[in-house]
Every structure is written in structure tokens, then in C-alpha cells.
Design a protein that fits this description.
This protein is α/β, with parallel strands linked by helices. The protein is 22% helix and 24% strand. It is built from 14 helices and 25 strands. The two termini are 28 Å apart.
Length: 621
């Protein structure tokens, strides 16, 4: 969430309106399921009356039309999840391909029973970003307890499917999709925390998440943890910190204030070191008086890596660390190039497992409302809710709801329900019902009647996101100060926002696609200087803010022109700490008065040009 779209911020400032689509869209493509997780709100055998979205399914036509809208609205990521198993949809392969070919990120939440080798190959080939495997167990017996009617063989099918996915990733030298195991903790599996970690390591998962069960009153309430069981879970989490395969114990876990407790990380990463190797961590106080962590790796031939800030190379986006042995250490070793896992470049790569959502899980464990499963009691009103700008969900019925738990707060329907005359998502997203929700979610106490249909106090899946965004918005050093403080006109329409893709120039010498920095990015064309000229159509005269979405690892000056007149010279595109799409960052350039009509916008660099994705012109009168 570090790179915040300025259009998103303008919507939050306005308080009701939105000037782009939701960054994240959850699509429940089907309500059918081949499993019966004991705590599921829809398919648990203890649910008396099935919800309306059970066994419903979105047509491929509705899904494809929605994806096309989301692309135009600037959505970045799609979740295939919800009340059913996404892999059961008869056109799941086409849906995955459609989403990825559209340039959207994709997270599939699945029970993995249908994660065949064919499906896994598509996930790897299409570079799907995330597979969230809903398991609820670390061994077959816990799986049987939490999935009535299932057998040990089902658990081992899941294990083998995930191992197959990990193998295909290795064969293709791919780190995608990342795999996260998801475990809902209840009184039937609470003793299996360590087993869930071991299972995740065994199948090559990068992340693991624990979540307390969200029960349905009078139906699955019997699954809630007792006070004794809660203490047992806390003890197990402490025991995890003492495991010999836990490293990165230097992670900051100090008390940083109540809100930031939500973001505290588990103090360590789990890593299986190959036999014959020893990984050591030590603390060194540098000349600057700060603590520095040195990590060294030794092999059975007693060769040791040099511990430094760059050895090992740690990549949190891939959950990897690479240790480098010197050439002089390896070339003479009798094991090198045969049984030794160190590669020809004298490097060895380790994957590690990370617990995500740890702060949220711990907060709920000590919540004053845990006895009634009101985990958000005492916290939910301490932070504004921004979810009306960040996320939306479409049920398998076609109904649009504003948050994960808002199934009774329907704001529209893609299938054209008679109550809602406009069934395009963009119309629903901009309608008064949705605007009213945004305003109330941000400003009104959640104990008001409006929120009774959601029951925010019980369990909020978005609280951590709200806390993280709120911290950024209040951080004066976050770069948000670059946003003009003037109030935004709530009647601002999409026609007042003009996006100019950097690869759409009609004249220029930039490299559009012959690179690996990411789709839509243009880079220097190798001519010693760079330029591009764009057609710009301004629908209404006025003052327009010019923004750029770019990436770079060094400062690069750029000149900007409009209709041949210089707007700014040697404007510095500051480093965003990387060159590819992971480091894209929005930056405000300047405000200029532009008359209505056709114009030519030009960008020019005397030397190398930054990596640019999009220019955006925002009317701000």
C-alpha cells in the first residue's frame, strides 16, 4: 500500500465520491462447493438455512463484462473467492486467462482439491500472483475433524497437489504463484498450530495465516475456543519462536501503540536449512550506534559466507534469501557441482515461510469480546473505515456488497434486479447508495443502526487494511503531503480525468515492449536521449494537475512540453528504489491551465529517461 494512487486519495478527501474503481475486487464466481468446512457460513453441515448465494453461479458473460469495466476503472487486483470453490466453475481456465491477459493481479482462494497438474501449469504459465489454500489443518486427523465426511486421502490429495505446484514453479524457475496456507482456528484443530507450520513448509508455501473462527450464532457457536484453549494457542505461538528452524528473530516486535499492534509481525521466519549447512545470526553494533544483523552460512566443508548487508540477499517479495560463497571457497571442494546444493555461481537459495496477519490474530486472541466472538469490540471505532474506496465484492447472485461481511448490505446487482435499473458495476460504484456507504463507514460509529446488517463488531476482515492506510495518511513523511490540500469537488466526473498510457505515443524513440520491467512500462530506447509525444484531448478548459506513474532506481531529470511550450525543465523523477512494476510510484508534477480541445503533450530527457507507465491529467478547478 506504499504507492497510493492520487485518485484514491482524492476520493477519500471528498468523503463520498470516488474517481477510480476499487483497487481490489472480489468476485464470487460460483456458490457451489465440493467441500464442507465445519465453520463455513454457507456449506457447513450445521447451517440450517443455506444463504441465497449457495449454489448460484455467475455467467462467463457477466464475468468478462465486469473484468472489462474494472480495467477501464483502474482496478489492480482480483480475488476469486467467496461462498464456493472457484475451481468448480465450468469456465475457470478461461476466467483465469482472461484476468491475467487483462494485466490484472490475481489471487485465487481454493480448497485445492481440484488443483490438478493442468490447472497448476496454467497458474505458473499465466504468472498468477497468489494461491490461498484454505486447509484448516496440519495433518489428516485435524482435516477430518474440520471437514465432516472427508477422509485421510483427501488431505493427502491436497498435499500432493500443492507439492506438484511447487515442483512446476521450480521447473519453470518461477516464484509465482506465491502460496499461502489459510487456517481457521476452532476448538477442533487449535492444538495443531505447529503441524500447520510443518505442512506449509512441506508443500513449499511462502506464507501462512491463522484466523479465529467467525461463528454463526446458534448454529456453529459450539466451535468457539474456550478461555483455556485460547491460552493454549498463545503458548503454541510462543513455542514457535523457539524452534530451531526460526530465523530473522531480529524483527521489530516492540509495542508501538495500540493501532500499530495490528501490524506487528511474528518475530521470525521459518526456513529449512539443507543437511550439512549451518545458518547463524548475530548482532553487531555499527559505527552509527545502530544494531546490524549479520547472517552467515557455513557448509560441511567448513566454508563460511561473509556476513554483510548484501550477503545474504533477502527478497521479501519472493520470500527468499541467497547466500554467496566466494569462488575460492567452492572450486576446490570435492562436493561442489555434485551433491552440493550450491550452484555454479557459488550461490545457494533458501526459501522461507512467513506468518502473515500475526498482529491481527494476536489482537483477536486478547480481545475483550472474545467470549461472544465480538473480536472487534473496543477497536473498530478507533479507526476510520476506508473500505468503500479500496474494495468491492460481487456475490455469485450478481449482487454487489461493499465489504466481505456485508452480505445484507446490497448496493446493486449486475444481473439487473428489478430494484436496480442500472446494472453496470461502474454505475453502481458511483451511485448514491455506495456514496452513502463510504461517508458513513468513514465517519459514523459502527454501533449505529446502519451497520447492524453488517455487525462490524463481530469480525472485520478489513480492519488491518484500514489501520495500515490510516497510518500512511497520518504520516507526514509518507509523501502524501504532495497531494494538493484544496477541497475536491464531489461532482468531479471521469471525463475530468484523462489518462495517457506511456506506450501510446504517436512519435518518439522509447522502448515499449522489448524489456522485462512490466506490462505498460516504457523505458529508454538506447539513443542516448529519450522523447515521446502524445495526443491529448481536453474535454473542458481549466486547471489540470499532471501526475506520473513511474519507477526508477536513480534520479533522472525530464522536460515537459505542451503544444511546443516548455512547462517545466529538468524536473527530477526521484528514485522509487527499483526499475520494474513492483516499484511503480505516483508523483505529482505540476498544475497547468489547459484550454479545451486537442493538444500535444511531450516528455523529453537529455540523457536516460525514467521508466514510465502512465501520465494522468486531473481537472482541479
Amino acid at each position: 500500500m506504499a504507492n497510493i494512487n492520487p485518485l484514491l486519495l482524492k476520493g477519500i478527501q471528498d468523503g463520498r465520491a470516488t474517481f477510480m474503481g476499487p483497487p481490489v475486487m472480489q468476485i464470487d464466481i460460483t456458490g457451489r462447493c465440493n467441500n464442507n468446512c465445519i465453520g463455513c457460513w454457507v456449506h457447513s453441515p450445521f447451517i440450517k438455512d443455506r444463504p441465497r448465494d449457495a449454489n448460484q453461479e455467475l455467467s462467463f458473460k457477466v464475468i468478462s463484462e465486469l473484468i472489462n469495466e474494472l480495467i477501464q476503472m483502474g482496478t489492480q487486483e482480483v480475488f476469486l473467492a467467496g461462498s464456493g470453490e472457484p475451481l468448480l466453475h465450468p469456465q475457470i481456465m478461461q476466467i483465469i486467462s482472461l484476468i491475467k491477459h487483462s494485466g490484472l493481479k490475481l489471487n485465487i482462494i481454493t480448497n485445492t482439491l481440484l488443483l490438478t497438474e493442468e490447472v497448476s501449469r496454467l497458474l505458473v504459465d499465466a504468472q498468477v500472483e497468489m494461491v490461498t489454500a484454505s486447509i484448516w489443518a496440519g495433518d489428516d486427523q485435524s482435516y477430518i475433524k474440520t471437514h465432516p465426511g472427508k477422509a485421510s486421502g483427501d488431505f493427502y490429495t491436497i498435499r500432493d497437489n500443492l507439492r506438484c505446484l511447487d515442483r512446476l514453479k521450480s521447473e519453470n524457475k518461477s516464484f509465482l504463484p506465491k502460496v499461502k496456507t489459510y487456517n481457521v482456528i476452532c476448538n477442533l484443530n487449535y492444538e495443531n498450530i505447529a503441524g500447520m507450520v510443518d505442512f506449509s513448509l512441506d508443500v513449499g508455501a511462502q506464507d501462512i495465516e491463522f484466523q479465529l473462527i467467525d461463528t454463526v450464532e446458534g448454529q456453529t457457536s459450539f466451535l468457539a475456543l474456550s478461555s483455556v484453549q485460547i491460552e493454549n494457542v498463545k503458548d503454541q505461538l510462543l513455542a514457535l519462536q523457539k524452534r530451531p528452524d526460526v530465523f530473522f528473530k531480529d524483527l521489530d516486535i516492540y509495542n508501538r501503540g495500540e493501532k500499530e499492534k495490528e501490524l506487528i509481525e511474528f518475530p521470525g521466519r521459518f526456513c529449512r536449512v539443507p543437511p550439512g549447512f549451518l545458518l547463524k545470526e548475530s548482532i553487531k553494533i555499527g559505527e552509527d550506534g545502530q544494531r546490524h544483523i549479520l547472517r552467515t552460512l557455513s557448509c560441511k566443508n567448513n566454508q563460511i559466507t561473509s556476513g554483510s548487508d548484501k550477503n545474504p540477499e533477502i527478497d521479501e517479495s519472493k520470500n527468499t534469501m541467497i547466500f554467496k560463497f566466494g569462488q575460492e571457497n567452492c572450486q576446490s571442494c570435492k562436493f561442489f557441482g555434485s551433491v552440493c546444493p550450491v550452484d555454479k555461481q557459488q550461490n545457494i537459495l533458501f526459501k522461507y515461510l512467513k506468518i502473515v496477519g500475526y498482529g491481527s490474530f494476536m489482537r483477536k486472541l486478547i480481545s475483550p469480546g472474545i467470549d461472544e466472538q465480538n473480536y472487534e469490540k473496543g477497536t473498530i471505532n478507533k479507526c476510520p473505515c476506508y473500505i468503500g474506496w479500496l474494495y468491492s465484492r460481487v456475490l455469485s447472485t450478481g449482487e454487489i456488497i461493499p465489504c466481505c461481511k456485508g452480505v445484507n448490505k446490497v448496493l446493486g446487482n449486475l444481473n439487473g434486479h428489478k430494484i436496480f435499473s442500472k446494472n453496470k458495476f461502474s454505475s453502481i460504484w458511483d451511485a448514491s447508495l455506495y456514496r452513502d456507504f463510504r461517508f458513513k463507514a468513514k465517519t459514523v460509529s459502527k454501533d449505529q443502526d446502519y451497520f447492524k446488517e453488517i455487525n462490524c463488531f463481530k469480525s472485520c476482515d478489513h480492519f488491518s487494511i484500514n489501520v495500515a492506510l490510516d497510518a500512511i495518511l497520518k504520516d507526514k513523511n509518507s509523501g502524501i503531503e504532495g497531494i494538493p490540500p484544496s477541497p475536491v469537488n464531489s461532482s468531479l466526473k471521469l471525463k475530468n480525468i484523462i489518462k495517457v498510457p506511456a506506450n501510446s505515443f504517436f512519435r518518439g524513440n522509447l522502448n515499449i515492449s522489448n524489456h522485462s520491467f512490466g506490462k505498460g512500462i516504457v523505458i529508454d530506447g538506447g539513443k542516448g536521449f529519450g522523447f515521446a509525444e502524445y495526443h491529448l484531448l481536453i474535454p473542458e478548459p481549466g486547471n489540470y494537475e499532471i501526475w506520473v506513474y513511474y519507477a526508477g532506481c536513480e534520479d533522472r531529470p525530464v522536460d515537459l512540453y505542451l503544444d511546443g511550450s516548455l512547462l517545466t525543465q529538468d524536473f527530477i523523477f526521484r528514485s522509487s528504489n527499483g526499475w520494474d512494476s513492483r516499484f511503480l510510484n505516483w508523483m505529482y508534477l505540476l498544475t497547468v491551465k489547459i484550454p479545451q480541445g486537442k493538444h500535444i503533450f511531450k516528455v523529453y530527457a537529455k540523457n536516460l529517461i525514467p521508466h514510465i507507465h502512465t501520465f494522468t491529467f486531473i481537472k482541479n478547478d
